[in-house]
Amino acid sequence: MFIEILPNSDTPIYTQLMYQIKIGILKREWSYGDGLPSVRSLASELGINMHTVNKAYNLLADEGVLEKNQKGYFVSERATMASNERTKAAMQDKLKEILIDKQIFEVNEATFNGWLNELEKELEGEGKADADI
């Protein structure tokens, strides 16, 4: 999998890594049960601190996207991801932030829905059809 980290981005590196891993799952570069690279090897490959990779992996495990055992981190089943209450709460928090910005910047429904449609089409190319949770 190709993971692109932008060190000068305003988005923290661990957050970028989390979304790159999620995109890899959408693209089916990893599927249920697949192991991810070790924290040390991925950190070395990307040229980032291993604590950053560990944080991203642990947060993905908290969300239910990854499972951790003695052998490392593995992609969770979609059913496990969908039933995770913490994931639901986290998604609702993100949606709330977006809706607050929508209202603050007075984005109308047509524009907002257009943006959503554009993003969904973009994600369809990354395996969205299989990602419906």
UniProtKB/TrEMBL annotation:
Do you know which InterPro entries this protein is assigned to?
Answer: Tscrpt_reg_HTH_GntR, WH-like_DNA-bd_sf, WH_DNA-bd_sf
User: Entry's Gene3D superfamilies?
Assistant: Winged helix-like DNA-binding domain superfamily/Winged helix DNA-binding domain (1.10.10.10)
List where this protein forms a coiled coil.
none
GO molecular function annotations of the record = DNA binding; DNA-binding transcription factor activity
Q: Which domain of life is it from?
A: Bacteria
Q: Residue ranges of the HTH gntR-type domain?
A: 11-78
Keywords recorded for this protein, A-Z: DNA-binding, Transcription, Transcription regulation
Instruction: Name the PANTHER family on file.
Output: GNTR-FAMILY TRANSCRIPTIONAL REGULATOR (PTHR38445:SF12), HTH-TYPE TRANSCRIPTIONAL REPRESSOR YTRA (PTHR38445)
The entry's protein name is Regulatory protein, gntR family
Protein species of origin: Trichococcus collinsii
